[in-house]
Amino acid sequence: MQKDIQECLNNGFRFSDITILCRGNFDIFSYSQKLGNLKVNYNGEETNIKTISDKGLTLELSNTLLAVVELLKWETNPKNKPHLIMMMFYLNRLGRINMPDFTLEMKEISALEQHETIIQFIEEKYHVKLKQDHFPKFNLYNFIEYYINEFSIEHKETDFLLNFLEMLFNFTQMQEQAPKNF
């Protein structure tokens, strides 16, 4: 595929002109990850192959976004610790944190009673900042962007996250421009 993509680029096509059909979501994610790590010559520069699709933007394909969603659910209801556990699971699977014994470490976290104590513990032990204390009130885009930056790993899910943020930005712009009915 890398050779075929390079040939298309050499013939004047752009990344957005190229389509790869897959059998299912798993194939889309798998090929997207593999191709995203390969380089081609594009406009005289060596660059990674850019991949994205509507199916490729489904939430279940990004551990970073799954962790953000679970954080938001947990923040909405801090007593609902299964959301905390799932957030930590996705961060561990992503490689953002390292939990050699997930069950034992989650038992330790779950034993903590206070929401603020859990947040402080996670920041100290795993270096993940779950509180945006020192920032002004963010709009939705900036709020989500903060956590995506906090949870993500460099060079992992990059195209996916950038495209998601672009879609979120467009959504927030449309919401700001929509007439308010009071």
Topology:
Elements: H1 2-10, H2 25-36, E1 39-42, E2 45-48, H3 63-76, H4 81-94, H5 102-110, H6 115-126, H7 140-151, H8 158-177
Helix pairs in contact: 3-4, 3-7, 7-8
What does this structure look like?
The structure is a single chain. By secondary structure, the chain is mostly helical. It has two domains: 2-52, no CATH class; 62-167, no CATH class. It has helices spanning 2-10, 25-36, 63-76, 81-94, 102-110, 115-126, 140-151, 158-177, and strands at residues 39-42, 45-48. Strands 1-2 form a two-stranded antiparallel ribbon. A hairpin with a 2-residue loop joins strand 1 (39-42) and strand 2. The longest helix is centred in the C-terminal third of the chain and has 20 residues, at 158-177. It is globular, with a radius of gyration of 19 Å.
List keywords for this structure.
two-stranded antiparallel ribbon, globular, mainly alpha, 182 residues, 8 helices
Compose a concise summary of this entry.
This protein has eight helices and two strands; from the N terminus they run ααββαααααα. It has 182 residues and is mainly alpha-helical.
Task: Give the total of beta strands.
Answer: 2
Quote the beta fraction: under 5%
Would you tell me the structural class of the helices and strands?
mainly alpha
Straight-line N-to-C gap: 54 Å
Oligomer: single chain
What's the structural domain tally? Answer: 2
Order of helices and strands: HHEEHHHHHH
Low-pLDDT stretches are: none
Widest sheet, order of strands: 1-2
CA-based gyration radius: 19 Å
| Continuous helix count | 8
